[in-house]
Amino acid sequence: MPLIDIQVMEGVFTDEEKGAMIAKVSDAFGEVVGATLRDATSIRVHEVKSGSWGYGGKPLTTEDAKAMRARG
After folding, report:
1. Domain containing 26: what range?
2. Which residues lie closer than 8 Å to 45 by C-beta, 6 or more apart?
3. For a Cys-Cys bond, which of 15, 36, 45, 47 suits 10, CB 3.0-4.6 Å?
């Protein structure tokens, strides 16, 4: 059934935060498609290696992503 992929930089989010992402995305998707498909949906959180994510034409590191997150 449906599969949702979330990609984040490694080491930026805790396991608890990734769990919250999964729960909230599942709930939001379920509001649109209904409970049956919500319960049949898989969600994967992929962590991309530091420096392997390009942003603004430059490699983004875990430290860069944490600094961005700290700014709100």
Report:
1. 3-70
2. 6, 7, 8, 18, 21, 22
3. 47
Nearest to 30 by CA among 53, 52, 4: 4
Note the pLDDT tens digit of each residue in 33-45.
Answer: 999 999 999 999 9
- pTM here? 0.87
Question: Residue 7: which H helix or E strand, with range?
Answer: strand 3-9
Tens digits of per-residue pLDDT, 11-58?
999 999 999 999 999 999 999 999 999 999 999 999 999 999 998 999
Q: Which residues contact 49 (CB under 8 A, 6 or more apart)?
A: 10
Q: Which helix (H) or strand (E) holds 33?
A: helix 15-33
pLDDT of residue 59: 96
Give the CATH number of the domain where residue 36 resides. Answer: 3.30.429.10
**Residue 41 region by backbone torsions, left for phi larger than 0, else alpha for psi between -120 and 50, else beta:** beta
